[in-house]
């Protein structure tokens, strides 16, 4: 899970202070990122081959978003359940959760996708007697669920860290005010936990967006698969993968900035 | 007079030696790197018994090098990047049952064709919803193949891109067929027979030829191998070696 550091400046500017150009704190790297994105963009606007490539590949954006957002929702829901089970005092739920987390974190995403898409789901459908072509189990749906289940393991650990970071005194204060267990969690623990884990969740969302490229092995037509299809017939590997890289970079950097802005907004002063 | 006779004899001797060598150029023992995918039986694959690469491409390039005095060094390469890479000179040549087509000629040079394949639909052995290629095309069945192949191009033409699924390699496409995700795989008949060999009761090829494609080896455009290898291919055609290799790998071979 790689983090992208998007802190625009290392030293905070006090409100009202005179803004002056400081060579040592100026975000030079951001200029570099922008140029990296602008070069393919310039080629797309001026070169017909690049434009063809872009027009072909961009049709995969819908599925890239679907897999990313759908996968993240699955990961959040399953992750919360797993993290609660992981912190349970009861033996069976706790062990099941630990098994799940170790399983998903111990197997590479690519391998899990192959297993899920080509082995487990077809086997399951065979078992329950559903045709493999049922619309609830298209390759895109399978890929989304698979990516979601994988990231659920990471997010479960993020949630656990967040929940455990809320001091015991907070819980006790809630109890003292007459709240029951459920209310303490919902009204006292959860709001603080989610704030603590926002950066980690954001990193996981960005990592999930990048890993959505792997579902191309199941012939799901997200942007990576579209690039493979286009370069496979046009042999424009340089153009095809530059466009693809620029698309991912645009998405991840904007997402990262959006998350930073949101973290600042919800930060406790 | 005597002197002239001597000169003539020497000249004749030189001509004879030159003619003897002229049948084949010599590469003087140099290494020729051959890009292969190792995922396209029976052209090239990893032999389960030995763990080594094997197949038609291995045999034919070992034979070519035998005759040209070179050493074939096989390098595993990904499809379809192998075409681009060969064009850039990463490999001296590549063999992967590559169909000769105009678009690819912009990137690489082709050898003379060494064999011709026919594209077909491969279906599950128990398929009963359709029995001919035309019925398959007319329905709304899903077709799979490997990305960046002439099979993909033809499949797109025949059933449209909405009914096509392009996987990274043929084994994955065939797996999708076996698990019921797709209804057919469009594939060259000889490669299809390779898979049938491995899953005899589970797969069959539909009647009806779709398109025939001549296959060639590829080289960088500036390669000095093209002419010499073309001569060997012609020799192998006339002396029956090529036919024997085709029989060995595409008719008798049982994966």
Category from helices, strands and their pairing of chain B: alpha/beta
Alpha-carbon Rg of chain A, integer: 22 Å
Based on helices, strands and strand pairing, what is the structural class of chain A?
mainly alpha
Strand count of chain B: 14
Number of helices of chain B: 10
Helical amount of chain B = 40-55%
Mean pLDDT level of chain B: 89
Radius of gyration of chain B: 22 Å
Count of helix runs of chain A: 10
Catalogue the unreliable spans of chain B: none
Greatest chain-chain contact: A-B, 19 and 26 residues
Largest sheet of chain A: none
Given the C-alpha coordinates, what overall shape of chain A results?
Answer: flat
Q: Extract low-pLDDT stretches of chain A.
A: none
- Oligomeric state of this protein: heterodimer
How far the N terminus sits from the C terminus of chain B, by CA atoms, comes to 69 Å
Give the integer mean of the pLDDT values of chain A: 88
Strand content of chain B: 15-25%
SSE pattern of chain B = HEEEEHEHEHEEHEHEHEHEEEHH
The share of residues in helices of chain A is over 70%
Question: How would you characterize this protein structure?
Answer:
The complex is a heterodimer of chains A (269) and B (255). Chain A is built from ten helices and no strands. With 269 residues, chain A is an all-alpha fold. With 255 residues, chain B is of the alpha/beta class. In chain B, a hairpin with a 6-residue loop joins strand 3 and strand 4 (53-54). The longest helix of chain B has 21 residues, at 2-22. Chain B starts with a helix and ends with a helix. At the A-B interface, helix 5 and helix 9 of A face helix 3, strand 10 and helix 7 of B.
